[in-house]
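Ticket opened by: R.M.
Priority: normal
Category: complex prediction / small molecule

The reporter submitted a protein together with magnesium ion and asked that the result be attached to this ticket for the collaborator who will pick it up next week. Submitted input follows.
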Amino acid sequence: MISQNIILDNLNTAILVFDETLKLNYINTAGEILLGDSAKHLFNKSTQALFKHADLEHDLQQLIMRNEGFVNRGLVLHLQHKNITLNLSATPIYEQHKAVNVLIELQEVDRHLRISKEEQLLAQQNTSQVLMRSFAHEIKNPLGGLRGAAQLLELELVTDELKEYTQIIIEEADRMKSLMDKMLGPNKVPNKVSLNIHEPLERVRQLVNAEVSQHIDIMCDYDPSIPDILADKNQLIQVFLNIIRNAAQAIATQGNIILRTRVERHMTIANNTYKLTARIDIIDDGIGIKEELIDRIFFPMITYKQEGTGLGLTIAQSIINQYGGLIECSSTGENTTFSIFLPITH
Ligand SMILES: Nc1ncnc2c1ncn2[C@@H]1O[C@H](COP(=O)(O)OP(=O)(O)OP(=O)(O)O)[C@@H](O)[C@H]1O
Ligand SMILES: [Mg+2]
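Result attached by the on-call engineer:
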């Protein structure tokens, strides 16, 4: 007969049990994943310390007094630095007509919504990348001819005054070619090695630190326990550079950038569930992005900068997609966060 603990630890619902003083005395694996900490660390913590939700605390105290369970649908809890919408069910466990324990079941409602949004986002990204590549490819071919013809023409010209015009054609054709090369992406085969995610991240931190003014502070909040991933270091440098540069450019005068790394457990990306996923958050307190623009900024050639190509994010996304990962963006009044998810597959 299978043990009850194994069944509880394989449930997708988080199960927590609190004693009559509302201190935790049992949590299953789904609960540990939801709260982002181990049972050992969480035991004996109060509901207030875990959920930081005054109304919920009050309802649970009432439950103890009245011996009556309750259900709270669409409850928003701030867990692991983000708001998560949950359905909560609280049930008193009686012993001799007295509630001695409180059983709490928590089910994420966002999860389903998020997975379908991710699928939609990935499909959109793939289409835009295919479009961008074929577009770049088609433009590059005639560009070579155009440049060659201008060079031949230049040889025939007798006055330097007219050569100025052929030079403009050549320079502009070169500028366009480098833009098209950027759109086509690197044609080198990625050199995937086992590497610590903090290596490319630190490299980019130093690079951007040297570029920005002293008024921008780049802070690190790393989880050193993240297992190595199999990746091409240069590709990851490019991804982090594009996103961290954007963050620095979004800060007009003074501000902060936070680089945060974490491990996510049991994450689903495009119908694949990964046991472990590295999560890299790049958070800035710059000008922010309007909600209606967020999905659009990943499209090629979308830029709100005078000198921008609008390719930084498209390239970053195309690289991360090659690794089965995902980039998400959210922007509140205070912070803009780009979250990169990279499955740890080996
Ligand atoms: N952290 C951020 N804060 C505010 N806006 C951002 C942020 N990151 C990106 N954006 C917006 O998204 C747009 C697209 O970014 P992307 O990196 O693709 O192109 P770009 O930065 O404009 O050009 P390039 O990367 O070639 O310099 C930017 O023009 C900017 O408006
Ligand atoms: Mg950019």
